[in-house]
């Protein structure tokens, strides 16, 4: 006899995707995540496609993964998905040293971040 299955953390009309240890600072990643929060999923994909930020490609892949999870794992309608949540977490920070003048050294920090995107199916309002 094993453990009972853990209850689902998300609602029945939600799906998510997580990308861990992305080599970008959380502050820069949050700028791109804020750009897609609350938008329709297809609009958010188009915005990321034409964004000039380097990390936008990784965010786009994560969003497409969340959309695929919604369609394949939870039988949600792709056309009625919105980006309900897009949040960023801190990960490890690699520390390196850079030689400076007069025999000194200064610290270089190379931060990593986690990205979680939750998409939600909403009912279309008939006007």
From TrEMBL:
InterPro entries: Ribosomal_uL22, Ribosomal_uL22_bac/chlpt-type, Ribosomal_uL22_bac/org-type, Ribosomal_uL22_CS, Ribosomal_uL22_sf. One of its GO terms (cellular component) is cytosolic large ribosomal subunit. It holds the Pfam family Ribosomal_L22. One of its GO terms (molecular function) is structural constituent of ribosome. The keyword Ribosomal protein applies. Coiled coil: none annotated. Keywords: Ribonucleoprotein, Ribosomal protein, RNA-binding, rRNA-binding. One of its GO terms (biological process) is translation. Belongs to the universal ribosomal protein uL22 family. The globular domain of the protein is located near the polypeptide exit tunnel on the outside of the subunit, while an extended beta-hairpin is found that lines the wall of the exit tunnel in the center of the 70S ribosome. This protein binds specifically to 23S rRNA; its binding is stimulated by other ribosomal proteins, e.g., L4, L17, and L20. It is important during the early stages of 50S assembly. It makes multiple contacts with different domains of the 23S rRNA in the assembled 50S subunit and ribosome. PANTHER family: CHLOROPLAST 50S RIBOSOMAL PROTEIN L22-RELATED, LARGE RIBOSOMAL SUBUNIT PROTEIN UL22M. Part of the 50S ribosomal subunit. This is Large ribosomal subunit protein uL22.
